[in-house]
UniProtKB/TrEMBL annotation, chains A, B:
Cofactor(s) demanded: FAD
Keyword Transferase found: no
Listed InterPro entries: FAD-bd_oxidored_4_C (IPR004113), FAD-bd_PCMH (IPR016166), FAD-bd_PCMH-like_sf (IPR036318), FAD-bd_PCMH_sub1 (IPR016167), FAD-bd_PCMH_sub2 (IPR016169), FAD-linked_Oxase-like_C (IPR016164), FAD-linked_OxidoTrans_Type4 (IPR051914), Oxid_FAD_bind_N (IPR006094)
Native species: Formimonas warabiya
Keywords, ordered alphabetically: FAD, Flavoprotein, Oxidoreductase
The name this protein goes by in its record: Glycolate oxidase subunit GlcD
Pfam families documented for this protein: FAD-oxidase_C, FAD_binding_4
Membership in a protein family: Belongs to the FAD-binding oxidoreductase/transferase type 4 family.
Entry GO MF terms: FAD binding; oxidoreductase activity
């Protein structure tokens, strides 16, 4: 990158908030995927005005800009393509307001999601979205990818909590979308259009999120099944009874085996499925719900069931689920984490298809995820240095997407398209849908400055 | 309109599904507002293919198309401008699927919202959005305007229940958005962009909506207050306690007086506010919630409170709220129904400002609406033949919008912008926001064929 441009960027953000040495820039070349791309320069703006100036400069000089939070994304959404400017928003990490009366918080994009959880829960409030990376990921990234998490089944995803945004447009202008009210039908719903747009339609510089009262009580159940269909029927029966657990997680046999081998939690490695069910709400509601769940699990011939009320006991039950990500990479270092999502009724069929794919390509493919909303996480565990295995993995990914679409599902439930899935997008959206997306992108970013090479 | 174009439209929809006589066309010139605009021709397509052909023809001949359901809209969203084609979707009124397992329904746009309620409730399921016009309004119109209703406080608006759409684009192509899963982050969120776009970005020809299990129990409370602030504090205290009623309606003194004078329900005409609170859920939860609500109302010095469990008793309490719309037009025939929405904490201040506006312009202005989400309905009751009064009303509307924006609110909570509020849009969105909207519209509808003259 030309020195005069670096100089101008330095004038905007200050000399301590810019990086251009190669050994430093490389730290901003990755995310949670196997994708890599090193930016020409990394800037750390503080404030909407600085972001606006950077984007205006980028438009003038026709340099691509890649917005970035903590780099925990799972679709390559923040990875620079062909150099450009990495726009790191982690300095903008203030929680500006938490209103108990209006049940909302105003935050900057660099706020870590888990920190927001803590701050609002201290006041008896609750921000439900809980992506697995919540201890490091940022709210800006959550908006960009429309992050989900286990609690999404009951509470919905990030999109369902965004009330308003401050956005720097792809041409560097500043606009406000939505506001401080839950109901707002003034103009197109830019708030939701921006949410999940993966940094291609604007840079979010301030976020108003809706909060809810913190549930008063919680109970957790770990239920073991010898039959995958029985586990799936249990999920449907619970929902049919009108019980909506906060989380309804499933782990398949391969995952159970893997977790048990590394974490030694006493899980039966011959079980076909484990459900981890957590209910929350008022004391009366939680007691009522867990009783209904126990009855349904028994009726559906579960092998065993443990219910916990106290925090320490609940944490113990959660250990199995929390151990999954680290357990499955013990075997091989490269994890290709997918989030193909199917209608709830198709979960058993999807798991069966995933097993066939795993056998066909001789790949290690544990399946776990959010059974309540059909959002499974098939993970291919491989070694990126094994060329043959990686080729088989690539073919398997294609078949996973095909299976999800065949069953009326979607490529991505909560990770986004990024660079990892863009070749498959037309398979889901069709050429007309893709053209519609492209037309919107071109209309608001005519020079293709903001996060080019993503989604399409 | 040229005869050859009418002939071609007739070929598409059949001779019994087209209207071109002036006395018949006039039936499609209105909605729920005081706006009027007669189309040159009215067509009643059946099927996505026919809609697509009509839009393609309209593009070829550069004729504007105005999609329309039952015409119950409150912002002029479906009113034709300068003639054109009225595209009436009421023949496409099939409920194509209700899935208990996947908790969804697939419907055509002409399905009446209340009919969908009945059909899904028969199966123990629930579709929450409940606009006041639910007995006549159609699902397509609900999507176009992102309709709300009293239950939106607990359950959210139409947008929160739309999973996927089949859409004929402004150029006549057919595309699918979203799908059958709750989680879906594949590409931009076109489903939500289309929802609330007031028929300007596409014609919805099929809708997949999310359903939830039907709540098992309900209780209703009618609470009378001598003090507006006490009523507002009660609303906040209920929510702070973690109780989220299904509906939390407020009526001001003027509204109470008006209802009592016409419906004689025994309401105290000197009360400052009435709250109508309904809780739903499981038996245990409903009992627990209503007890908390009773305690809070007592603590906040309500004058009187009546709680009902049985359907007949609950219906009696609802009578006051349901009587509002017909009661307020007894005095004068023209109702200008607004839906300016403020953050919940600003409700008392907004009601005070509305009273000042009413006095300043010497207008009859009852206020009622959804207190839970700050979505008030200030209604100006006037006579459209009284020129002076209508001029004062117009000025008052401007001041209502200004007050809502001053208090951090929005022009429209659930009615949409249509033609009624478009001159005020820039005041809320700013020039940058408005340009962003316009860029999207122009990108997908370059010839401005679909519902021109709406929103901006």
């Amino acid at each position: 990158m030309e020195q005069r441009i670096i100089k101008r960027l330095e004038n905007i953000v200050g000399s301590t908030n810019i990086i251009f040495k190669p050994e430093e820039r490389i730290c901003y070349s990755y995310d949670g995927t196997i994708q890599r791309g090193t930016p020409d320069v990394v800037v750390f703006p503080d404030g909407t005005g600085e972001v606006s100036e950077i984007i205006k400069l980028a438009n003038l000089e026709k340099i691509p800009v890649f917005p970035r939070g903590a780099g925990t994304g799972l679709s390559g959404g923040s990875i620079p393509q062909h150099g450009g400017i990495a726009l790191v928003l982690t300095r903008m990490n203030r929680i500006k307001e938490i209103s108990k009366e209006d049940l909302l918080a105003v935050v900057e994009p660099g706020v870590i999601t888990g920190n927001l959880h803590q701050e609002v829960e201290r006041l008896g409030l609750f921000y439900p979205p809980d992506p697995a990376s919540l201890k490091t990921c940022t709210m800006g990234g959550n908006i960009a990818e429309n992050a989900g998490g286990p609690r999404a089944f009951k509470y919905g995803v990030t999109r369902d909590y965004v009330l308003g945004l401050e956005v720097v447009t792809p041409t560097g202008d500043i606009m406000q979308t939505g506001g401080r009210t839950v109901k707002n039908v003034t103009g197109y719903d830019l708030t939701r259009l921006l949410t999940g747009s993966e940094g291609t339609l604007g840079v979010v510089t301030q976020i108003i999120v809706r909060l809810i009262p913190k549930p008063k009580d919680k109970k957790t159940a770990l239920v073991i099944f010898d039959d995958l269909d029985k586990a799936a029927s249990t999920v449907n029966a619970i929902i049919s009874e009108g019980v909506i657990p906060a989380t309804l997680e499933i782990m398949d046999r391969i995952t159970i085996e893997c977790v048990e081998k590394t974490a030694h939690l006493g899980l039966p490695i011959d079980a076909e499925a484990v459900l981890l069910i957590e209910v929350d709400g008022s004391l009366a509601k939680v007691s009522e719900d867990i009783q209904i769940i126990e009855d349904i699990c028994t009726k559906n011939s579960c092998r065993a069931m443990e219910v916990a009320s106290l925090l320490a006991d609940r944490e113990r039950l959660w250990k199995a689920r929390r151990a999954v990500s680290s357990a499955i990479v013990q075997l091989k270092p490269t994890k290709i984490s997918e989030d193909a999502t199917v209608p709830r009724s198709k979960i058993p069929e999807m798991i069966r298809r995933l097993r066939e794919i795993s056998e066909k390509y001789n790949l290690f493919l544990p399946v776990f995820g959010h059974a309540g909303d059909g959002n499974l996480h098939p993970n291919i565990i491989a070694d990126k240095n094994d060329k043959d295995e990686m080729e088989r993995a690539e073919k398997a990914v294609g078949e996973i997407f095909k299976a999800a679409l065949d069953l009326g599902g979607t490529l991505s439930g909560e990770h986004g398209i990024g660079v990892m899935k863009k070749n498959y997008l037309e398979g889901e959206m069709g050429a007309i849908g893709l053209n519609y997306l492209r037309a919107i992108k071109k209309a608001v970013d005519p020079q293709n400055i903001l996060n080019p090479g993503k989604i399409f």
